[in-house]
Amino acid sequence: MSQSATETTTVTDPVVIRVWKGDDSDVFALFPTIPAFGHYVTSYQHVGQHASADYNLCLSKSRPATEAEAAPLLEELRQRGYNPRPIKRASYRMRKEAR
Question: In this structure, what is the dihedral angle of CA atoms 26, 70, 92, 40, given to the nearest 10 degrees?
């Protein structure tokens, strides 16, 4: 079934939620489709909020967040106007889109 012109599509923001190794309280978000400077992507943390980040380096220095760890950060992102869609890792297409 095709969408009619009156239907709206909700745009989501793919986001990878991670926790720094060695600091279980430091949860952060990577937005693989929102470019920052050069080959960097946009990131977000409770403290410091928006920044640019090296996607691959961040993955190597962190682990995936559990649902419980991710929940407060996802809520904060919603309050800031994002429509986060948690993903485990960015696809090649997503990374290419950010370039």
Answer: -30
Q: What is the pLDDT along the chain (99 residues), one digit of tens a residue?
A: 444 455 556 888 999 999 999 988 899 999 999 888 888 999 999 877 889 999 999 999 999 999 999 999 999 999 999 999 999 988 777 766 666
Cα-based distances in Å from 19 to 6, 10, 92, 94:
41, 28, 22, 21
Does residue 37 belong to any structural domain of this protein? yes
The total of structural domains in the chain comes to 1
The secondary element (H helix, E strand) that includes residue 57 is helix 55-60
Q: In the structure encoding, which two tokens stand for residue 79, read together? A: 């309050």
Whether the CB-CB separation of 28 and 43 falls below 8 Å is answered with yes
